Amino acid sequence: MKIVLLSGGSGKRLWPLSNDSRSKQFLKVLKDPSGQPESMVQRVWRQLGEAGLQDRAYVATGKSQVELIYGQLGSDVQLIDEPERRDTFPAIALAATYLYAMEGVGLNETVVVMPVDPYVDGDFFRQLAQLEEALDTSGADMALIGVQPTYPSEKYGYIVPKRADGSGRSFLEVREFREKPGREEAEEMIREGALWNCGVFAFKLDLLVNLLMAYELPIHYEEMRKRYGSLPAISFDYEVVERANRIAAVRYEGEWKDLGTWNTLTEEIKTPVIGKGMVSEHTANAHVINELEVPIAVLGLSDVIVAASPDGILVADKSLSPLVKDMLKHSEQRPMYEERRWGRYRVLDYAVYPDGREVLTKRIFIAAGKNLSYQYHSLRDEVWTVVAGRGTVVLDGRMRTLTAGDVLLVPKECRHSVRAESDLEIVEVQTGTMLVEEDIVRLELQWDEIVQLCQV
């Protein structure tokens, strides 16, 4: 059995902490068993490890999330990166070709696909093996996990099974799917045994390989990457699941939540304040999550979420917080805060001058032992001022020590990297005609390889 974790999302539902590069699964607002901050993706990865499944798991993601996943899960995680953002059918097709062509996975192998951020208990992952059993026993094209509903939700999709035949089988045969029904319809479906569709399904690898061949699409990974942009941007549910001849479902009766909005996420946040802030005794069921350096005080407002980051400030009634995505649908603001495999950065200031020059100021934190990639830019000059720490900098193949108080000019086309010997903080001022993250040409990621390039 192989497990593919789908990591995507544009990050609008948990704005302003989430953005196009830091989606909801990367927010460290939960707690691990030792009480340390933990993101949703870190929680799932830890639970896979506890179930002995990490070595079978792959993360399928877009380019913008690669560094963040390495930063939170470590450099050993097996990644399948999409050349561009499409939809779940192209993403899963690409993953299938990677397993088949690059990993040599057999056509009879069970592939389990699931979101990277479900909020479940550990038993959920131990139950994944039942998907493989259901496929082998039922002869179905697909097998899904369905969650036993705890209330008639109008926000979830439902799996409606066929009537039980008294055979005592460990799986159900699926009759149909229903999306976000009204309350009365949901109550009736639950009485008939319907389950919440949590987006977890399994199939034999040959199902997708044969489908790609029928569509005259590549089954080899490198060729699929080349043609990825021409694949239809369509969901796997619509393209494959809803067209399957026979589908089985395994019932899961444990805890499951979609923590995709502020009202559901704050139900699992154990403290009312994260960051600088305070909530008065006259306030009930209020949460403050603050990434800024200025304090936030909430007095006399109940059932509210106040979230603040360099991207903005949200003050919302929790019951209305899911509407923030629609409210921001026309917003095109660049992310002002990002986490990377080496640390993080925050945008301090951005200005555009009459002559077209752009100036952007960042505060960069590089964790001890980590390094930036060996890279260059074509559209901007940079000036670095080291404010704390010690490291080694590379400029066009030459290495030197970097300490607090040093000021460096990094002109256009200059190949550069830096490694932090201790936690390193740099204020970077960019000047150019287009200050975007896409203006980075990465030559090498690993420090040992960078050093070898300099020696050559």
UniProtKB/TrEMBL annotation:
* GO BP: GDP-mannose biosynthetic process; polysaccharide metabolic process
Any Pfam family hit: NTP_transferase
Give every Mannose-6-phosphate isomerase type II C-terminal domain span: 340-444
GO MF terms, alphabetically ordered: mannose-1-phosphate guanylyltransferase (GTP) activity
Residue stretches making up the Nucleotidyl transferase domain:
3-268
InterPro entries for the chain: Man6P_isomerase-2_C (IPR001538), Mannose-6P_isomerase_type2 (IPR051161), NTP_transferase_dom (IPR005835), Nucleotide-diphossugar_trans (IPR029044), RmlC-like_jellyroll (IPR014710), RmlC_Cupin_sf (IPR011051)
- Recorded protein name is Cupin domain-containing protein
Q: What is the lineage of its organism?
A: Bacteria, Bacillati, Bacillota, Bacilli, Bacillales
